[in-house]
TrEMBL record:
<protein>
    <submittedName>
        <fullName>DNA polymerase III subunit epsilon</fullName>
    </submittedName>
</protein>
<dbReference type="GO" id="GO:0003676">
    <property type="term" value="F:nucleic acid binding"/>
</dbReference>
<dbReference type="Pfam" id="PF00929">
    <property type="entry name" value="RNase_T"/>
</dbReference>
<dbReference type="GO" id="GO:0005829">
    <property type="term" value="C:cytosol"/>
</dbReference>
<dbReference type="InterPro" id="IPR012337">
    <property type="entry name" value="RNaseH-like_sf"/>
</dbReference>
<dbReference type="GO" id="GO:0008408">
    <property type="term" value="F:3'-5' exonuclease activity"/>
</dbReference>
<dbReference type="InterPro" id="IPR036397">
    <property type="entry name" value="RNaseH_sf"/>
</dbReference>
<feature type="domain" description="Exonuclease">
    <location>
        <begin position="4"/>
        <end position="170"/>
    </location>
</feature>
<dbReference type="InterPro" id="IPR013520">
    <property type="entry name" value="Ribonucl_H"/>
</dbReference>
């Protein structure tokens, strides 16, 4: 089953999309996890306040990230690990929004990424009372992980997509998206080009 992608998950210090404090990345090749990595991120000034609510969720405190690399310093490593893959995330709009907002705040170009949302795929694959990551992951046979640890969450997301591909007899991530009726999103210059192709040249001037 040659399903290839990189699963990603961010934890944030507060509600700002530029407050990423941790990231987890999991690479899947032929339906098998072949690599995983995670690290702390020091949020940008003005976006670096840690709210008690967020700390309660993920357990990350300011002292954990004081010596961590900034977004600008670590973005090349993130892009290199993904290496042109489609990204997959549970509620992908949040995680891809972190990439967009953090890059913009850091004064960097938003990198090109295409992505598929595992939450949407789970909704079209399983019959569940909830599609929260732990519940959907359990349906995929992935249990007992440390929810809100970025790397563990990325692994759970990967497990959902691998299992769903098997359920739908999909040979590629693109085929899984098509069969389950889930769109493949995009951010970065590629997204602007796709928007222009769909809506005409004026789309290039729209946010």
């Amino acid at each position: 089953m040659p399903v290839n992608f990189t699963a990603i998950d961010f934890e944030t210090a507060n509600s700002s999309g530029a407050s990423a404090c941790s990231v987890g990345l999991v690479k899947v090749r032929d339906g098998i996890v072949v690599d995983r990595v995670g690290w702390f991120i020091r949020p940008a000034p003005g976006h670096d306040a840690f709210l008690e609510w967020n700390i309660k969720i993920h357990g990350i405190r300011p002292s954990d990230v004081v010596d961590a690399a900034t977004w600008a310093e670590q973005l090349p490593d993130l892009v290199a690990f993904a290496d042109g893959d489609h990204l997959v995330a549970h509620n992908a709009g949040f995680d891809l929004g972190v990439i967009k907002t953090s890059s913009t705040v850091a004064g960097l170009a938003v990198p090109d990424f295409t992505y598929v949302c595992s939450l949407q795929v789970a909704r079209r694959t399983y019959q569940l009372d909830s599609y929260r990551l732990p519940v959907a992951a359990m349906a995929a046979g992935f249990e007992g992980f440390a929810h809100h640890d970025a790397l563990a969450d990325a692994e759970a997301c990967a497990a959902i997509m691998i299992h769903a591909a098997g359920r739908h007899d999909a040979d590629t991530l693109e085929e899984l998206a098509r069969i389950s009726g889930v769109g493949i999103g995009a951010i970065g210059p590629i997204a602007t080009k796709e928007k222009a192709a769909t809506h005409g040249p004026m789309a290039l001037n729209q946010p």
